[in-house]
């Protein structure tokens, strides 16, 4: 079985693929605590057991990590608790993409895994991937598997935390779709501002990317990441694929086997 780990700035998102490449389980854990290899190993094995999976059946581990401080502990965890050297997505790893960034090494591993997942699930299509995580990122990929570039903007929770930390009287709020645009209280005003500002930004970016890069063949727009479902009712994307990055990691393992 293949254990895939997407290590972001806020969470570790994990998934287990069986021998038929079907996603068996998914789980999340905070990544903001700098855990030791033992803490991570005990957690992963416990999660697998709680989902009726024998940890000893794990034959491969793939890691996509944007938190360098955690990578050493993750590799040591895989070696000690699974007896495996993980495949870590980094420059030089085969992805099947042609990266057209000025410096391809600058592209985050999470964005590469998203792009690989997208071209795997929607072959032969121009694509825009909107990933709503700690940061909200947009990536454009051509039908010929060319990674063109994209955008990075503060994520929904990051924006809310900035308001809370940098102002004297604004509180943290629950992040949810507002009932109406005009807030009738401070909490409602923050919720509405966060929600509709993100809708407007993402919609404008999708429109401009489509006009600039895909005017002759409109792209398929894919939403993914922890907050993608929050915006699904606004018809920003044709498809929401919560496990897109895990699918990308699975394909990267296949390409590097």
SSE string, helices as H and strands as E: EEEHEHEEHEEEHHEEH
* Terminal-residue CA separation: 14 Å
What order do the strands of the largest sheet run in, or round the barrel if closed? 6-9-8-7-10-11
- Kindly report the name of the CATH homologous superfamily of the largest domain: ATPase, nucleotide binding domain
Mean pLDDT: 93
| Shape verdict | globular
Q: What does the main sheet amount to?
A: 6 strands, mixed
Query: Which stretches of 5+ consecutive residues score pLDDT under 50?
Result: none
**Tally of strands:** 11
By CATH, the topology of the largest domain is Nucleotidyltransferase, domain 5
Task: Write the SSE topology.
Blueprint lengths: L1 E6 L3 E7 L5 E8 L6 H14 L9 E6 L2 H14 L5 E2 L9 E2 L9 H13 L5 E6 L2 E7 L4 E9 L1 H11 L19 H28 L6 E5 L14 E2 L3 H12 L2
Parallel strand pairs: 1-4, 4-5, 6-9, 7-10, 10-11
Antiparallel strand pairs: 1-2, 2-3, 7-8, 8-9
């Amino acid at each position: 079985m293949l254990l895939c780990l997407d290590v972001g700035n806020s969470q570790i998102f994990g998934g287990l693929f069986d021998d038929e490449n079907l996603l068996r389980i998914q789980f999340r854990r905070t990544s903001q605590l700098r855990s030791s290899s033992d803490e991570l190993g005990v957690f992963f094995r416990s999660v697998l057991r709680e989902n009726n999976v024998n940890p000893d059946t794990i034959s491969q581990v793939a890691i996509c990590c944007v938190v360098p401080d955690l990578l050493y502990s993750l590799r040591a965890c895989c070696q000690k608790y699974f007896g495996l050297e993980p495949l870590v997505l980094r420059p030089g790893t085969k992805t099947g993409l042609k990266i057209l960034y000025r410096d391809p090494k600058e592209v985050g591993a999470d964005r590469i895994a998203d792009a690989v997942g997208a071209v795997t699930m929607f072959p032969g299509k121009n694509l825009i991937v909107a990933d709503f995580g700690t940061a909200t990122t947009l990536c454009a990929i051509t039908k010929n598997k060319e990674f063109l570039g994209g955008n990075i903007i503060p994520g929904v929770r990051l924006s809310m935390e900035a308001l809370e930390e940098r102002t004297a009287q604004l509180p943290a709020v629950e992040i949810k779709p507002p009932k109406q645009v005009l807030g009738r209280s401070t909490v409602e005003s923050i919720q509405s501002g966060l929600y509709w500002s993100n809708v407007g930004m993402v919609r404008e970016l999708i429109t401009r990317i489509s006009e600039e890069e895909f005017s002759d063949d409109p792209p398929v727009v894919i939403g993914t990441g922890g907050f993608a479902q929050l915006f699904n009712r606004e018809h920003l994307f044709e498809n929401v694929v919560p496990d897109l990055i895990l699918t990308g990691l699975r394909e990267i393992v296949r390409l590097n086997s």
